[in-house]
Amino acid sequence: MKQLEVYFNDIKAGILSEQNPGTGYSFQYDEEYLKSAMPPISATLPKKVTAYSSEHLFPFFSNMLPEGANRRVICRVLKIDENDFFGLLETMADRDFIGAVNVRRIKND
What we know:
It comes from Duncaniella freteri. The chain is an alpha+beta fold. It has one domain.
């Protein structure tokens, strides 16, 4: 299972997971984030205690990825399948994204 931490304005909002490559995804809000006055990360992912799950990467997260020629170039250079959306998101992790939401690799200390 692959996982990424999701941050909203540098505050940890939750964990995005890929259970099976290309076939199973979940997003779970962090318990502290749920208790806070912070807004949901997206209108399509309102705050709730139970995890969201989907067969496909949630549109909110796939919309964070580069498109068109930029995606092709990045995938070619980094040797990533253009259809591996989670892999591309993982590769882009820890970099600047447009907007308040960012994803980061989980650091294993």
